[in-house]
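Two proteins, back to back. First:
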Amino acid sequence: MAHNTGHKPVMLAETIAALNVRSGGLYVDGTLGRAGHTREILALGGKVLGIDRDDQALEEVAKVAGDEPELFRDLTVAKGRHSELKRLANEKGWSKVDGILLDLGVSSPQLDEAGRGFSFLRDGPLDMRMDRSGGVSAADIVNEEDAGSLAKIFRELGEEPQAGRIAKAIVSARAKKRFETTLELANFIEKLIGRRGGHHPATRVFQALRMAVNDEMGELERVLEDGISLLNCGGRFAVITFESLTDRVVKKFFAAHVGKMVSLQQGGEKWEGAIPRAVAVTRKAVKATEEEVNLNPRSRSAKLRVIEVKET
């Protein structure tokens, strides 16, 4: 799931620096992808539990690890959702860890392969499942949900202003013929609402479908709660987001744990916030440099936020 170009994830140097990796430390990469971040953590002497639900990503990591067994000897790979990271870490015998990394979103290999159905730039089946071994596909949602449910998905997960209009038109059109491919849906939306500005008019709908298919918001809420409870005192939690929707969830969750000092009527002050208490490592979201954006346009929307747990 990590957003990679080739094997270089977004904001690699900034993320690794913010994690403050130490030799012998225990780290969870909840979105292993092609192991770009993990490679750097291992090179610094960290031990890593890498989690991904995409079989293709896991196969590629196995190949890379086979080529460099010495570097990858302290990597344990687990197939699963990142929301399961606490259970997977506990099964490995790790009751606490020193750092957690999540690089949310879709990987370049997922986007670039038409057969995965993530992109409206290439014709492929309307799939979008990160784990193709089960669950509903984007085609199932588009062809079976009623107009109200579709509009809710497009509005809440895609922040699509014309959610209702698009949903009604889809329901009307699919009565004659099911939507089967990415381009069928993308072209239908473009014809319906027209093209203005730089973004393809189907961008928000495709984002919403991908997030619905993979339960990305539910996953994020669960992994934040589980993750922060797994961190040692001094442990760091780094999250890279690519949509304003997911960034807002991370920002709010981290802010609650950083808390604030509140003045008391009788004098003095006390800290108010969610437990465990944390401090902000990044005061505001870190963004990719202009140089990186030029090399990898997908990094333009990336935001990195990091906190450190102060007490457990």
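And the second protein:
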Amino acid sequence: MYDLIIEDGTILSSAGRRVADIGVEGGEIVYIGSRPGGGARERVSAIGRFVVPGFIDAHVHFRDPGHPAKEDWSSGSRSAASGGVTTVCDMPNTSPPTITAEAWHEKAAIAAARSVVNYGIWFGAASGRVEDARRMADEGPACGIKVFMGASTGPLLVDDPTLVQFFERTTALMGVHAEDEGVLQAQRVLWEGRTPPTHHDSRPAEAAVTAVRRLVTLTREHPRPVHVCHVSTEAELAVLEAVRGELPISLEASPHHLWLNHESPLGNYGKVNPPLRPEADRRALWAALRQGLIDTIGSDHAPHTREEKERSYAESPSGMPGVEFIFSLMLAAVRQGRIGLERVVQLCAEAPAARFGFARKGRIAVGADADLVVFRENDLVRLTADRILSRVGWSPYLGQNIAAKPEMVFVGGSLVARSGVIVDDAVRGSLVSPSRGA
């Protein structure tokens, strides 16, 4: 007997569409076709609805333990699930910072106990930690090695000699925050004692371009997979497009760089690294996305509280919440004619699964995990605060017209969320990592 049968859904993939039933047993898809024989403990009609793989957000910053008003694995994973994201990968610069095997396993244990979605955990590049990173990412369970070329503090800020060591001695996927620290330091001196007109003025495109040029040089000298996080400028795209297909470099774009620009009236709520950019850069990102130059979408979910964001510019932290509304924003783009549904599935499920080596994720196929999202295309709705599940209670997209949250979200075949509401708080996700083939 099947645990679940989803009947008559229109299954979407980058290759096209088909109407079929999906049979699930033990959290795994075991049948795709018409009218499977045998009974089912639960049947769901998906007539007139689309079924897609659960979205994968490989760029979140969940915090646990920490400030009681901040996002943690409990609240963050529930906001993710409510919005159709069934797998997240947490960055190393959260509590506990994952630059040791002990801290990595501590964070994994927290996620296992509290997360309703599947979880991967990055290992942070730090001086003197190359061998630790090699063991945890090249040979172990980490989903990749995260490098901060700028914008971080303490042991996670990687200087060039350390970066070269990581290129020479590790082979795992390297995710990179590409802003050059030298350029950023010069800007700090320039603006010392003054508030720049916009955050973009304090962190210009030059910082990003200098960093990606260095990445190109190092990847050519030491070929290994590199994933450039939150690309934000037309100038970066030009550098990276020139080596497309030649070097194993993939690109991530974040929703805030696609939907907002540096003139958005958000004040410190719009402060994020890399910054919101001029409108020409935003439009260039959309063009690159349509042309296939952008590989994945990652929210860079950094959920600071209203209290933190309402401090002075210098004291306000950078970052904004985002994981909850990736699905709704991308579906809004479909409704607006910017992109097709099949491309959304590729960007948000298939491509991240392939890039990170999550063999059982990102696709609807026999043998894949039953992480599934069921939805229908409806009119767009205005985002209001009461629709936000994230603990911080705000979003940079408030007031914008976006798609409704999906009707049903399944993690491992269990219904977790219905129309944006968590219906089974007891579901727990599982660890995903390339080494496990998960």
